[in-house]
Design goal:
With 303 residues, the protein is α+β, with helices and mostly antiparallel strands. The chain has three domains: 44 residues; 51 residues; 188 residues, no CATH class. 48% of the residues lie in helices and 17% in strands. The chain has nine helices and eight strands. The N and C termini lie far apart (162 Å).
Length: 303
């Protein structure tokens, strides 16, 4: 009995002295612990409650993403529609404003048609008889662009006949012309003055130094020259009637002076437009009389 007690006591002492060794030396116990741990992990992984919570969170996240996408798409579509509506509105306003301006201009341009007064007819007779203006009524043309510059500028663009040339200018002119000497008057037209004259009276543009029928251009003096001793002036005897039409055009009916039997009773219809303080020529048509002479006044300068 004492021996048994001593053995138990020794055994307990050994276990107390090295408890770790005793557990490690017990493989069955370690194996059972590993199995329990694995079993707990497996149970957590296969636990339906855990799975359900995980799936529910994923679904909520997906729903939130879908809502955000829908909201963003709706905003983009709305923004584009709003831009289109704004563009249409702006375009409509622009068209409306343009239409209003056009109607306003049309109303301003529309002038009540009326007959010219005697005072106005007298003014046009005097105006047409000016030396520098007479060339506009001394030839016929249905459009101002068809006017012959040689006929128009034949006697110059000054209110008085010809300018006197200096001796140096005469010598320069002879270098450019085929004449041996100057034996008649020479019409001189400076380029800047010609440009202004054509613009104010005919709304025609003139390029500096461009060719003018029959005239010689001398760069040194920036002017055009033509030597001749006659004139193509054809005075206006009377302006008998006229009117202002609905477009604001002045239509004047005049009779030219009788210089010969052929020219007797030559009637013209001249159309002009008032621009600022000037009357711009639009056309000059022969109604009766010596219409052929009005077509071909000076053939020398024509091509």
């Amino acid at each position: 009995m004492n021996e048994n007690m001593n053995q138990d006591t020794n055994t307990n002492m050994d276990m107390n002295q090295n408890p770790n060794m005793s557990m490690n030396q017990n493989p069955d116990m370690n194996q059972n612990m590993d199995i329990n741990q694995n079993t707990n992990i497996g149970m957590n992984q296969n636990n339906p409650v855990v799975k359900k919570k995980s799936n529910k969170g994923l679904i909520v996240l997906i729903i939130l993403l879908l809502i955000i996408i829908i909201l963003l798409s709706s905003y983009i579509v709305y923004d584009k529609l709003n831009d289109k509506e704004s563009a249409k509105k702006n375009e409509s306003e622009v068209k409306e404003n343009v239409s209003k301006e056009e109607n306003k201009e049309e109303q301003e341009e529309k002038i009540e048609s009326r007959d010219l007064t005697q005072e106005e007819l007298t003014y046009f007779k005097d105006h047409f008889n000016k030396i520098n203006i007479n060339g506009f009524v001394g030839q016929s043309y249905s459009n101002i662009n068809d006017i012959n510059l040689f006929d128009l500028l034949y006697v110059g663009i000054d209110e008085e006949y010809g300018k006197q040339l200096s001796e140096e200018e005469k010598q320069e002119y002879l270098k450019y012309s085929s004449a041996d000497e100057i034996y008649t008057e020479v019409t001189k037209i400076e380029d800047d003055a010609l440009k202004k004259f054509l613009k104010e009276n005919a709304n025609l543009d003139h390029k500096k130094g461009s060719y003018v029928d029959g005239f010689i251009y001398i760069p040194k003096y920036d002017a055009y020259y033509y030597m001749h001793g006659d004139t193509n002036y054809w005075g206006v005897d009377s302006c008998n009637s006229g009117k202002i039409d609905e477009n604001g055009n002045y239509i004047v009916n005049c009779t030219l002076m009788d210089y010969s039997k052929e020219s007797a009773g030559t009637n013209i219809k001249t159309t002009l437009k008032k621009v600022d303080d000037n009357f711009v020529f639009i056309s000059n048509e022969c109604e009766s009389g010596d219409c052929e002479t009005l077509k071909f006044r000076n053939t020398e300068g024509r091509k």
